[in-house]
Design brief:
The chain is an alpha/beta fold. The chain is 49% helix and 19% strand.
Length: 335
């Protein structure tokens, strides 16, 4: 009988202990739910200025929120291609993304990619930070994508294994472009054979000869070490591309006004940080690519501009002639 009583007492103590463990564990989980976690994906390498800018955003958000908001950063296409990450943001499976592939939802966001639209970084930034930048991003809200800032992608240039001095040198060349209609149209106008593929596949594609050339901002060429498999850096400057930073609208609506302001102000500060370091580092990166064996070519850009006029004619029909003309007028006033 005493043995049975002892067993019952031990079972009671064990049950009480289990309840306490569950209570404290549950309390701890509830406490962690008071912390707002933002999962932020992008496609660049950790050595790229883009990653540094996203890390700056993380630092600012966590500092301004006094640790109540945490940003988890996933670089280097860890969570999929740019298109896949953007789609994840539309479903709020991922909260934020810095990417260029938003034209799959509304092509007007790519209007800033018209060839030779901008002559300088400062001119581009002035337009992006104006009402036009907000106007172009607004339709994305219909797909649950809220653009909170424009980070920097930079001017794009061609790398190849032969010099590119005029459009005819691109004739028939199999060149990797991103999967963006405007990029594809631009290189068709130049007479080359654009071959879209994900950025993560590009190094191997160049190495194996699947494509002959590629075009990217200097920072991407430098960080991805394309100098190891490409002989020429051709400073075509054929397109400027901003890097929209978007947050899930579904997630945004769960935030307090104070949290929304923290995200907006931090994104704006991180954008300025990104723009400055990319512009300031570009000449240094070009010099280092030269030192590593690349030959730098200064093409005749006027000839490329002439070929690009056909792209404007086509995209005035697609974007709306009035809208494109108003953008061109604004750009001209910001020279």
């Amino acid at each position: 009988m005493k043995t049975l009583q002892k067993i019952m007492i031990m079972l009671t103590i064990g049950l009480a202990f289990s309840i306490l463990v569950v209570f404290f564990t549950t309390s701890n989980v509830a406490g962690s739910n008071n912390e707002t976690v933002i999962r932020f994906g992008h496609g660049a390498a950790e050595s790229n200025e883009r990653h540094l800018a996203v890390m700056k955003f993380k630092e600012l958000v966590e500092e301004k929120s006094e640790g109540k908001m945490k940003v988890q950063v996933y670089p280097n296409e860890q969570l999929g291609s740019e298109a896949e990450m953007i789609e994840s943001v539309t479903f709020n499976d991922l909260q934020m993304v810095a990417a260029s592939a938003f034209s799959q939802y509304d092509q007007r966001i790519s209007v800033f990619e018209l060839p030779y639209l901008f002559d300088s970084y400062e001119q581009a930034w002035s337009i992006l930070d104006s009402d036009i930048g907000q106007q172009v991003a607004k339709p994305l809200l219909e797909d649950g994508l809220r653009v909170v800032a424009y980070f920097e992608n930079g001017f794009r240039h061609v790398t190849s294994n032969k010099p590119i001095e005029e459009p005819e040198d691109l004739g028939g060349l199999k060149i990797r472009t991103p999967e963006f209609p405007l990029s594809i149209s631009t290189f068709k106008a130049f007479g080359s054979n654009p071959t879209p593929m994900a950025f993560g596949e590009l190094y191997m594609a160049l190495q194996q000869g699947t494509v002959d050339a590629q075009e990217n901002p200097i920072a991407n060429t430098y960080a991805s070490k394309f100098n190891e498999i490409q002989d020429y850096l051709n400073l075509t400057g054929h397109q400027y591309m901003p890097l929209p930073v978007a947050i899930s609208e579904e997630f945004w609506q769960t935030l307090t006004p104070e949290e929304q302001e923290i995200i907006k102000s931090s994104a704006s500060e991180a954008a300025t940080f990104h723009r400055d370091i990319l512009r300031d580092n570009e000449e240094k990166m070009i010099s280092e690519l030269q030192d590593a064996g690349m030959t730098v070519i200064q093409p005749d850009r006027d000839k490329f501009r002439e070929k690009a006029e056909a792209v404007y004619d086509a995209y005035k029909n697609r974007f709306g002639e009035e809208f494109v003309n108003s953008l061109l007028k604004e750009v001209e006033q910001n020279q």
